[in-house]
Amino acid sequence: MLLIIAIIFTIGLVGLLIVASRKESHFRYERNGIIAAAPNILFPYISNFKNGHLWSPYEKADLNMKKTFGGTDGQIGSTLEFAGNNKVGSGKLEIINMIPNELVEIKLTMLKPFRAESLVQYRLTPEPVGTKFSWVMTGDNGFIGKIMVTLIDCEKMVAGQFTEGINNLKSVVENLPSNGTTQREF
């Protein structure tokens, strides 16, 4: 009986490895949302790592996450090193490109739960009713990543977190006090 279980397990494992090896290496996850605010109002929230606690779904997933900031926040080269629980993992974010009020590109280097590098883009596009905020992550899976996407619907999981973040940012920005001025000028 034990031999039969070992054979079935081996066949299943080999099957998993074959399916994983045939998966596409490149991935792209993207979500978008319209926020009733001008790009210049949104930009400080997406370009400054220290503002992440206001809207990032990852910050909310681990309130005790350890964070270390480097460089000048809101500038190319600024960094955020983080170490969190199993929902967040640990790694480093670094701003590698920025176009004021339009684009922030961030290199994400994950260390845990496994090592991976990705490119994160926050893009702001003016719309008649506000700003379209696009959150994109691209990269290439190694073999371990291919096994993971075979077992877990990563697109659904990651994109769901992006949607949560977009909704959080929308809530923060659209509820800013006006102080007698229009905070959401288009």
Word description of this protein:
By secondary structure, this protein is of the alpha+beta class. It has a single domain, classed as 2-Layer Sandwich (Alpha-D-Glucose-1,6-Bisphosphate, Chain A, domain 4), CATH 3.30.530. The chain contains five helices and seven strands. It has helices spanning 2-21, 39-47, 57-61, 143-151, 154-174, and strands spanning 26-35, 66-70, 79-83, 90-99, 103-112, 116-127, 130-140. It has a seven-stranded antiparallel sheet with strand order 1-7-6-5-4-3-2. Helix 1 packs across helix 4. The longest helix has 21 residues, at 154-174. The radius of gyration is 20 Å and the shape is elongated.
What brief labels describe this structure?
Alpha-D-Glucose-1,6-Bisphosphate, Chain A, domain 4; 7 strands; 5 helices; alpha+beta; single chain
Topology, element by element:
Layout: H1 2-21, E1 26-35, H2 39-47, H3 57-61, E2 66-70, E3 79-83, E4 90-99, E5 103-112, E6 116-127, E7 130-140, H4 143-151, H5 154-174
Antiparallel strand pairs: 1-7, 2-3, 3-4, 4-5, 5-6, 6-7
Largest sheet: 7 strands, antiparallel
Q: Estimate nothing, just give the exact number of structural domains.
A: 1
The CATH architecture can be given as: 2-Layer Sandwich
Beta-strand percentage? 25-35%
Task: Please give the share of residues in helix.
Answer: 25-40%
CATH superfamily: START domain
Oligomer: single chain
Q: Return Rg in Å.
A: 20 Å
What is the topology, as strand order, of the major beta sheet? 1-7-6-5-4-3-2
Mean pLDDT: 83
The total of beta strands comes to 7
Structural class: alpha+beta
